[in-house]
Amino acid sequence: MFELWPKWVSLVYWGVMGAAMGSFLNVCIYRIPRGESIVFPRSRCPQCTHPIPWYYNIPVLSWLWLRGRCAFCRGPISVRYFLVELWTALTYVGLFDRWGWSPTFFILAVFLSLCIALFFIDLEWQILPNGLTVPGTVVGLLTMGPNTLVTWESSLLGFGLGVTLPLGLIGLYWLVRREAGMGLGDVKLLAMIGAFLGTQRLLMTLMAASVAGVLGGLVLWRIHRTTPLGRVAVPFGTFLCGVAWLVVFWGDAVYEAYHRWLVRWYLEW
Ligand SMILES: [Zn+2]
Hints:
Blueprint (H helix, E strand, L loop, with lengths): L6 H25 L29 H5 L13 H21 L3 H23 L4 H13 L9 H26 L6 H40 L12 H33 L1
Helix pairs in contact: 1-3, 1-4, 3-4, 4-5, 4-8, 5-7, 6-7, 7-8
The structure holds zinc ion.
């Protein structure tokens, strides 16, 4: 394809844009669960409420420069701010490297930005706000045409399975334990993942996140020894979002390796 400038210029550009997007995601992560507006007021230190001027609000760099402390009250600033900005920047660079200037790049940038925000909100609050998952699902369905990762059948079926499969699991769990094993937030998140990634990657995400969630639950149980095993609260949405991120970048490679292994195993028999 005809290039106006070398690819690394675009990669640097999307790294900067990703870091700026991460800065906005930090605002969403802090304010949405608190029911605050994500537009007003401007950023303030959560401890001394001093407004943060732009030169102390430069993504990734300011946190390092201030060594994770507020410039005014010296109160600690969560490492989450730094991690979200860096993770989003790397995500945009990775997506552009793979998909270039294409509709799929922009669609996946929206999807993974939502995943990063939901990852941290569920981790801290054990909620997956409708304000992110529902519009996300709508965007996923509306963009299934230009999204080259899925066919429209796979996107629609992924959405349908994303709704019905967890509802079925919740129903089964309720029959056995007489309580909800998953929240409805997880159902909406799975519907969103299905709409963006299609059937196959949805199932891969659900299976890998379940395994990771069980292992994570066991680790938490060992740490908080007083909580009975069945009572450990696992932020399943965090695992789903983290695995969905991995599946976007490496799902195909894992699937192909598995397929090759299966064929070889079959031939050797
Ligand atoms: Zn402060």
